[in-house]
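Weekly modeling sync, notes
Attendees: S.R. (lead), two postdocs, one rotation student

Agenda item 3: backlog of single-chain predictions. S.R. asked that every request posted to the team notebook include the full sequence so nobody has to chase files. The rotation student volunteered to paste the first one in as an example of the format we agreed on. Action items at the bottom.

Example entry:
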Amino acid sequence: MPLIVDNALAPADLLPQIQCLWELSAAKILDIEQTWSEENGTPVFTVNGAYTSRGWTEWTQGFQYGSAILQFDATGDARFLDLGRTRTVHKMAAHVSHTGVHDHGFNNISTYGNLHRLMREGRIEDNVNERNFYELALKVSGAIQAARWTPVEGGLGYIYSFNGPHSLFIDTMRSLRSLVVASQLGHVLMQERDTAICLLDRSIIHAEVTARFNIYYGEGRDSYDVPGRVAHESLFNVKDGGYRCPSSQQGFSPFTTWTRGLAWALCGFSELLEYLLELDPKMQIRNQPLTGVIELFLKAARVTSRFYMENCCSDGVPYWDTGAPELWRIKDALEKPAQPFNEWEPVDSSAAAIAAQGLLRLSKVERVLGNRSSARRLHKAGLTVARTLLSEIYLSRSPTHQGLLLHSLYHRPNGWDHVARNQKVPNGESSMWGDYHLRELALIIQRQAKRETPFQFYISKHS
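Predicted structure, as returned to the notebook:
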């Protein structure tokens, strides 16, 4: 297994590095706030250390303002609570009512959701009007996300991507949070003839279709059916709901694995499992026992976790795609730490930040299920990856660099990532999603080390 896990590592061991992260993070959040021009849209990734805007949709603004909220959560610095609150009120409403994207869980859970969570946890004063404001936004966001629905064979369906009704993206596994929170708040999607759609059912059905078509299990599905391989996109015939083929927008090919997509799968299924394990096991989903749903999602989470650990480098950071065409030129690429400054293929640290969180969350799931050995192995693996990302190679310490997590990659096939002078591949840059997910990862570990309330998006019966 390429990932060399440090079995002696504990959450408290990372606290000094995490403290350094929050100190660096504070300055970078304020720098972006002071220098960013709203006329440029939303900051997406850096070029020569300065955030720039480029993308298909405005899917990163929630990460920008959500980062300020996480900063307050971790440090108690009220400046960042004020910033996150103010910007959420004034800038995020259009994201709540955005009918054209699959990104509601990114934009709105990171802002309205984090503020609502802090109020539930007693970290900020419970003001009924403010709470109602957050809850209304979360209800509407979940319903609008759920309305992007393509029915498929067997009475199933999925939330379609911005590519259109034929397209199921793996990324959306982490946007299902918007449906789950809205459902917990008692909301439904109302459609023609006053038909009420259960948002929890819809999130689970989407995840079921994703598990069946975007995840591979080594069961002979096609010639490239490697257990744990993930397709970025699945294509369907919208006329009859039939599955057609795998595809990829940001990976090298439909038959290789884009590693950030792999990370979205691992994190999304693990996080959804955390929530489902708190429900009554006698519940029925589409007239099926909840236990069967959990079994399918657990299968997906486990197989992607194994594939990630087998296909990242020894330090836990992956190259951008398992089939990157020039990866063969790097001798024993996966048997040693990732090399961001190599001449052939870029790494993607943002995939590592997302996957590390997934490993920690799956560890919790296994612990709840009584699988102590597996839980311990996954927990140590997640901490090992986190330690790499908190090291000097990946944590941006330069006051002139606005990014926090270095060596993040956006879109290799489109050539959107900056290649610095004297370099052959993109490196040294950051992204809004990479920075935000590193902050989430740090907050998870910090709360574990201090034995505080676990960091989770939903309303827990234990909180």
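Discussion: group reviewed the output briefly. The CA atoms of residues 247 and 254 lie 4 Å apart.
Action items: rotation student to repeat for the remaining queue; S.R. to check formatting next week.
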